[in-house]
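Side project, low priority. Logging it here so it doesn't get lost.
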Amino acid sequence: MSRPRIGSRSSHVGAATLSLALFVAAPAAARAQGAGNGFLLGTPVGSLTIRGGYDHANAGSDIFNDPQTIGQLTLKKSDFSSPSAMADIGVRISDRFDFILGTAYAGMRKQSEYRDFAEGADNKPIVQSTTFQRVPITGSLRMYLTPRGRSVGRFAWIPSKVAPYVGGGGGFMWYRFRQSGDFVDFTSPDRNSMRIFTTTYESSNWTAEGHAFAGLDYTITPRLALTGETRYTFGRAPLSSSFAGFHRIDLSGIATTAGLAVRF
């Protein structure tokens, strides 16, 4: 009589148990993936975010109201607002905090003419072009108001579906304010003999800036999230000699943007 092959029986029992476990776990895993509850192998160490939107410029300083620079032209304060683009890299500090390095661009260029003055007997408009650009380079601290994910076991990390955040920081902003074209010389005492001349006025410089923001991440896959943010930026800068006599230019504004965040 042959002796029973105990090792073989154990192998069969183990294989059967494993098959049963996979059979039970597969539907649950499928449901988790279908519900957007997938996971990453390990907690993300950072993120790359790209957003686009609209930046509403305050345009609150005297340069935006002066009759000789803006007030006489077919320009409005709203013309200095513009589409904007932002990009930042976040480095995870803790479960709730990230350090953010970021940059952005907002810029407009608008053609205009004098409202009350024309040139020559044929009343040709006196035209010019105005450009206003802002480029901040910033560092920020971002704080999540709720957990942005949870660890399961030693390796799996499951992101939260929705993760709101707030933050703030500071940095430096480069700006350019430029007007080019034909202008009226208002120094003439006779309105009918005012000189028209062609020139370019320009000022560009770096200045300090501060900002605060609030936003929301919405997970669409474990590695990818939709993100929306509203940010207020404060900054003022001196003007060049082209605009002698004016106070510091107002660079402040509020931007609303949306885009994608990639976790890594």
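Brief comment: The radius of gyration is 30 Å.
Revisit when time allows.
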